[in-house]
Amino acid sequence: MSDDHKKRHPIKLIQYANGPSLEEINGTVEVPHGKGFWRTLFAYSGPGALVAVGYMDPGNWSTSITGGQNFQYLLISVILMSSLIAMLLQYMAAKLGIVSQMDLAQAIRARTSKKLGIVLWILTELAIMATDIAEVIGAAIALYLLFHIPLVIAVLVTVLDVLVLLLLTKIGFRKIEAIVVALILVILLVFVYQVALSDPNMGALLKGFIPTGETFASSPSINGMSPIQGALGIIGATVMPHNLYLHSAISQTRKIDHKNPDDVAQAVKFSAWDSNIQLSFAFVVNCLLLVMGVAVFKSGAVKDPSFFGLFQALSDSSTLSNGVLIAIAKSGILSILFAVALLASGQNSTITGTLTGQVIMEGFVHMKMPLWARRLVTRIISVIPVIVCVMLTARDTPMQQHEALNTLMNNSQVFLAFALPFSMLPLLMFTNSKVEMGDRFKNTGWVKVLGWISVLGLTGLNLKGLPDSIAGFFGDHPTATQTNMANIIAIVLIVAILALLAWTIWDLYKGNQRYEAHLAAVADEKEAKADVDEQ
């Protein structure tokens, strides 16, 4: 680029964007045609891994391990149900991107008003930042545990991961996918190794995959948690809104001929295979985390469910369940592997969180920033509450510090309950629609039924869990007054969420009607032109 061109067109930090989703990587990965199944699957493999990262991020860890500690294998059925719902939703998200050539944020914005688009953008940004807080805490604790870096400094060091991201943007999207897959394998192997050493009760484990009435019961309460609270925690940490936006964008990285329906069908098919395989890995990791809570540690032995407590417990022979684990734990290898997996999880989430932030900013408000700038802004905002938490508890006991960080991480996830319905419902409406997807690619009858059950069920469970989530801001043992206040706040928020959902659905319905009328007008114009040509 010439100096004269740069002077006339200076590079701006924030630019207008209304082109293809993630334009720099859109349609850049070549895929084979007419080749074997495995070769074609390999070419489409990658986007599913970036999505799967969100299902095994640090926010999942304590909910699954604590659920295992408190209720043995009872809640493993919840992990199975959550994973199956995730597979269904991610399939729809990838299909939307491939068929419509729009990501979910672009599709919502195209069918709704500018005002609603801004509201939904802010809501989704808050959800991403909430997820980022969990990643900051996980990465900072991993740095502290591995290298003994003071927590405040470790939190600040997490900001420097923007340099890692800057490097990754230079090496190409296919290599980024490969790095993410490698980090996922690191996490998987660490937990497979630790659980294999613990020799879990396979009969009880397999029995746990069958849900019972006890799974969603409100009693008994163990260590301040009931089965329904544990189930809601696992569901809330598993299905997250940003994954739907991300998948609808990165599914478009493959270069296909959109004028050829068979080409589009192949892309949908192999993207579904990729997604389901990678989410199966995430499912296994989450199951392993719960099994760790049951089999690696003695029942009820982990008094501190934070990452600090789990790290300490993996090197403490009094908390471990058998002689083999105790012998290996004395070397420190179990706790070090745990911290390495935690760091890998945080770095993986850095990559996907930044890409998702760009997708929603471009889609909802048509603004674009360089990825490094985008990451720097969101990470600095996310770091602030973590630093405040660390500094406020600096004079407390280590246990109190750990509990404060764990509470902050868990409470930050409350924003996910707000944002999730506003990604799931539009996604289901778009992919159910013949107008949007055409006869060939709209959801089949059984996908529609399962989709509505999943969306309404998850929305209902998230809203049901809102009072407890808000009560969590008052600590582990809120007073009766604080509980009543939490219930009142929850009712107000639920009414606001339902009102905003009604506005979104109405706008989408009207937008779909306008688009249908536009398509009919275009068809009539083509028919009239054809008649004139014949005459």
TrEMBL record:
This is Mn2+ and Fe2+ transporter of the NRAMP family. It is found in: Membrane. Keywords: Membrane, Transmembrane, Transmembrane helix, Transport. The chain crosses the membrane at residues 71-92, 118-145, 151-169, 176-196, 228-246, 279-300, 320-344, 376-394, 414-433, 445-465, 485-506. GO terms for cellular component: plasma membrane. It is a multi-pass membrane protein. Pfam families: Nramp. GO terms for biological process: iron ion transmembrane transport.
